[in-house]
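does this look right to u?? MRU version
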Amino acid sequence: MRPLYFENGVLRLIDQTRLPEETIWHECSAYEQVAKAIKDMIIRGAPAIGAAAAYGIVLGMGEVKTKDRTLFVEEVKRIAEEIKSTRPTAVNLFWAADRIVNKVIENSGKSIEEMMEAALAEARQIDEEDVTGNRKIGELGSELIRSGDTILTHCNAGSLATCDYGTALGIVRAAHDAGKQIRVFACETRPYLQGARLTAYELKEDGIPVNVICDNMAGYFMYTRQVNCCIVGADRIASNGDTANKIGTYGIAVLAKENNIPFYIAAPVSTIDFRISCGTQIPIEERDAREVTHIRGFRIVPDGVNVRNPAFDVTPNRYITAIITDMGILYPPFSESIGRLKERLHGGGA
Ligand code: MRU
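got this back:
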């Protein structure tokens, strides 16, 4: 179940605000529409917004009028900055946009058509690498799952949040495909209900047993030994392993440690921000109050009452059992395992 397709100069996105009631494809033919779709969460999930941003910049390149190559590159940078300003927390957005801009700069001695071709090829590569990476995460992570396990997850780290297959749900899929009898507890994930609406939808479609639980039930199910492990995705992982993910993840991680239940992060290496040393440096998006005051258009909070709506929290590394990436499983101490990974990727550079 892919949430996005780029064909004939149009980016088609499954409108995730409408699931599970309706499957509507939202079409973007201009980069401004892609930026708005990311901001409005028509497309969401760290790897998926990265890929959408990459295709969005490609669309924007087609809108640039100048024939001057230097001005063209400047315009591409401006478009990338505009797309990057949509959501602050998931690093994949910045990583993917920078990959496209760097590809354009690398080809800036060539014609504008060639720069555009190179950018589109790079966007397609980001998309394909994500799917391959998720399959690898699934293969590695499923080794940690036993038949009979109940896996608790939060938010949606599935096909819909990636280019396909998913990270946390990639592990669930791989374990299920390997014939393991597993079951998922999907936290509903207030306020946006990614768990109740999207995770439950995906797993039901695939015939994987799932129970939706309210967020405040997680502790009960852990304390009564009805959960064997927790697996969640990530929006940004600092160099010491501190991990930003959907609001509520931190509480689940603390409960897991209290109850001696393994707590795993599943994420591609593109979610690691090697430039930051710890989680306090991760910007946390605060979204519109209406997401809290209303559920599916229905007001549940008295009019005029103030609310807060941080969309993410940071789980300190001490609560994380392992980080399952497409380049291997990382174990504590994370500063060291992530440091070794950085060495493999960049030879120690930035
Ligand atoms: O606000 P969202 O829905 O974009 O938040 C998504 C999450 O927090 C996911 O868990 C994360 O992006 C990982 S998706 C593979």
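Residues 4-135 form a domain with the Four Helix Bundle (Hemerythrin (Met), subunit A) fold (CATH 1.20.120.420). idk if thats expected tbh
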